[in-house]
Structures are given as C-alpha cells and as structure tokens.
Specification:
CATH superfamily of the largest domain: Spore Coat Polysaccharide Biosynthesis Protein SpsA, Chain A
Low-confidence stretches: 164-216
Strand content: 15-25%
Mean pLDDT: 85
Strand order of the largest sheet: 6-9-7-8-10
Largest sheet: 5 strands, mixed, barrel
Helix content: 25-40%
Number of strands: 18
CATH topology of the largest domain: Spore Coat Polysaccharide Biosynthesis Protein SpsA, Chain A
CATH class of the largest domain: Alpha Beta
Radius of gyration: 22 Å
Length: 434
C-alpha cells in the first residue's frame, strides 16, 4: 500500500501572522517553530514511513522553492514545483491529480499542509494508512477531522453522521469539552484498528469501511461549512457531531481528477493540458505551466470539490471523516504558538526556549526564546529575541518578536491581526521588510 500513496505537501503560504520572523523568502513552513527542524522538514519526516521519497511532491512558489530544495535534501529538486502564480488549493492539488492519473492509475494522493504540529506521529500514520485503504477501495474522499475544543471561527467544520449506522458511539453528543492536550473519547474510539478492512468493496453508494469486530474508524460526512460566525460555531461544538477540517485529505488521483472535471469544468482542461505537457519534457511543461496556470480559478478545494460533492447527500458523496487519533495544532498565530509552547509536555523543545512560570502559576508561564532571561511580576508573555538576554518586568500577555530589522510588540489577544502589518508594508512597497 505504501507505494501507492503519493504525499502532496502544500507549501506556498506566506505565514503573515508570524511576521517579522516569517517573510516571503523565509515563510512560516521554513521556520523551526516546534523543534530544531523546520515545519516542512517535520512534515516530510513524519510521512516518509508511509511512502518512498520518490513519491513526494511539494507545491510552493518561486520565492520559497530554492530554500525548500535546500531543506529537503531527501527529495529530488524536480519534486518541488513552484506555481507561476498562487491559485489556492484546488488548482495546486488538482495538477498533482492529473499528473499522477497519467503516471500511476492506482495512485492515492494525500494532501498535507506543510505547517502542522502532530503530537503522536505513530497514531497519525495509522490514521493515514486507514484513510489510504478507504481511498484506494473506490471513488472515496477521506478527510481527517479534529475534535473541536472551542468555538473557533477560523476553521472549516465537518458535520458527520454519528448515528448507529455509522458505527460511532451514541455518546458523542454528550461528550464533555476535550482538554486540548488529551485525546477525547471519540478520538480514542476511532484511533486505530490492527486488522485490515474485511470488505474492500467500498463505493460511493453508502457502503462503509468495516474492520473485523472493530469500530470502522470512519464516518460518513453530511456537509462542510467554511469558517462560521461565533454563534454558529458555538452551535456546532454543542451538537457534538462536528469536527474541525484539518486540511488533510486522502483520495485516489482519478477520484480527484474526475471530481474536478465535474465541479471545476473551466479549470480542469487547463490542468489536464499542463499535465500532458509534462510528458513532453521539462521545457514544454514549464512553458505550458506559466501560460495556462494563471488562467485557473483561484479557489480552495473545499469550495471547489468538497462542498458541492457533499451536497449530493451522505449516501452518494463517498466522503468520509476519520476523527484524528493524534494531537494536532496548526500554529496559526503567535498566541497559538505561545499556548503550544507553554503547555507541557514539550518533547521537542528549542535549544534557547525557556518557560518561566511566576510564583508557581503554570497558566501564566512566560515563553521566552533567548540566550538567557530574567522575569519579575511578568506573566503570560511570548518573547522571541534569539541571541540576546531578555528581562521582562511587570508585563502581562505580551507578544514581543525581534529580528535584525524589525520589532513586533502586540498582545496575545491581538496577535491574529499581525497580518495587517504585512498588508501595510506591501502597500507602502517596503519590500525589505516583507
């Protein structure tokens, strides 16, 4: 099965909310935010046990391609593709689907963001192996769902069928709020199965994946909802039948290509033509890529494929959700990084990282990346000043990030707004700072 899985890693984002550390040529995925390795290095390494290095693809942009090539020494540079222009996730993953449909009819594509933190990598691989089996068994789409721990408005949501037919426990609606650092009952229930699926005749007509004598570990998807408002997000969390959309999907190359032909009819022929040009050599591919790719629609795969396909109904859509059996964080802001770093255990600490709780108050720990630090009457701060001595006195809940040419000072509460700084710098054409 491993040789049929082709991990496609999407690595074109700028990571503007991590400015000033994240820049156009040194974006979030290239930074060592979770360990001494960069986010994209961690992503590749956790996937390598599932597929040979030759099966990997990385989709990025011209600014980041060379730095990524330097970081990912196990991959051939031809496997790292730079988009001529950004066109969101549907064209990016769609191009991979049309390329692989031609090269390997049995190819299963795993779509993975390049900047996620995964706590339990063994459990992660078990979930992806199971998703690969489901995707290989028929025209099925599998999404990895994350059990919500709060009414987050920045994520998409997946509604699943939690009734008896789905194999899920009826307790799901009465689950207590999950601790962000513990697996929920639902996650443990669907965490893994040691036996292969007994029925490989999995189709889009509603037959569900079954494991002998065990929970199926996958439930039918009813619908996708992108980034609801706070009131709706609260309703979703209370319902107990919704998961966060992790952005990790597994599907057959042909399944995705056919879905794009159906739901994205204007862009699909362009992507097919680009894929056909790849057979004619590098020069032909690059010329066709540069000419046709900018004409593709700028749309996410969620809007382009998942929402219209789920609208067919759970018995016909062939979309399944595997509730994640592993700890997950997408580190979307400096505040999210603070929460991740301040919560033990931290098995992969950075070499200069220190956590300094005041008066034994673990909840108010300061997270400081520096050579050395001193704190007094300071709580809940995130400070990054690598190579310097840091003293923090009488301050609370600040985010302070210093680089050679910039200094960010904000609060954890306002850290989601850091992207506004980058927008302003772009408008002022201050290119050296972006």
């Amino acid at each position: 099965m491993a040789n049929n899985l082709y991990p496609v890693i999407l690595a074109g984002g700028r990571g503007t909310r991590f400015w000033p550390l994240s820049r156009k040529r040194r974006a979030k995925q290239l930074l060592p935010l979770n360990s001494s390795k960069s986010m994209i290095q961690e992503t590749v390494e956790r996937l390598l046990p599932l597929a040979p290095a030759k099966n990997f693809w990385v989709i990025t942009n011209d600014d980041l391609r060379d730095p990524i090539v330097r970081q990912l020494k196990k991959l051939d540079k031809k496997q790292i593709v730079a988009e001529p222009v950004g066109r969101n996730t549907a064209p990016a993953i769609g191009l991979a689907a049309f390329l692989l449909e031609r090269r390997d009819p049995g190819a299963v594509i795993g779509m993975f963001p390049s900047d996620h933190v995964i706590a339990d990598e063994k459990r992660f691989r078990e979930d992806i192996r199971r998703a690969t089996e489901i995707a290989a068994a028929g025209p099925n789409i599998v999404v990895i769902g994350i059990k919500p721990t709060r009414a987050e408005t920045g994520y998409g949501y997946i509604e699943v069928n939690t009734g008896p037919a789905s194999g899920q426990s009826g307790k799901a609606k009465n689950q207590p709020a999950a601790d962000s650092h513990q697996l929920s009952e639902c996650q443990q229930l669907t965490a893994h199965s040691d036996e292969p699926f007994a029925n490989s005749q999995l189709t889009a007509e509603g037959r569900q994946p079954k494991a002998k004598g065990k929970e199926p570990g996958a439930v039918p998807v009813r619908r996708f909802t992108e980034k609801p408002n706070a009131e709706v997000a609260e309703q979703f969390v209370r319902a107990g039948s919704f998961f966060w959309n992790s952005g990790m999907f597994v599907w057959g190359a042909k399944t995705l290509a056919d879905a794009l032909r159906e739901h994205l009819p204007n862009s699909a022929p362009l992507l097919e033509e680009i894929a056909a040009a790849a057979i004619q050599g590098t020069r032909k591919f690059e010329k066709t890529f540069a000419k046709l790719y900018p004409k593709c629609e700028n749309i996410s795969v969620d809007y382009a494929v998942l929402e219209p396909r789920s609208a067919k109904g759970e018995g016909r859509s062939g979309i399944y959700c595997i509730p994640a059996g592993f700890g997950w964080n997408d580190l979307g802001s400096w505040a999210a990084l603070y929460e991740h770093r301040s919560s033990p255990p931290q098995p992969t600490q950075l070499r200069h990282l220190s956590r300094t709780p005041e008066s034994g108050n673990e909840a108010g720990a300061n997270v400081i990346v520096s050579d050395e630090s001193f704190t007094s009457d300071a709580e809940g701060n995130f400070i990054h000043a690598d190579g310097k001595f840091v003293a923090a006195m009488g301050v609370r809940n600040l985010v302070v990030v210093e680089t050679d040419d910039a200094l960010l000072i904000t609060t954890r509460e306002r850290s989601q707004d850091v992207g506004k700084v980058v927008k302003w710098l772009d408008e002022k054409k201050m290119k050296k700072l972006v």
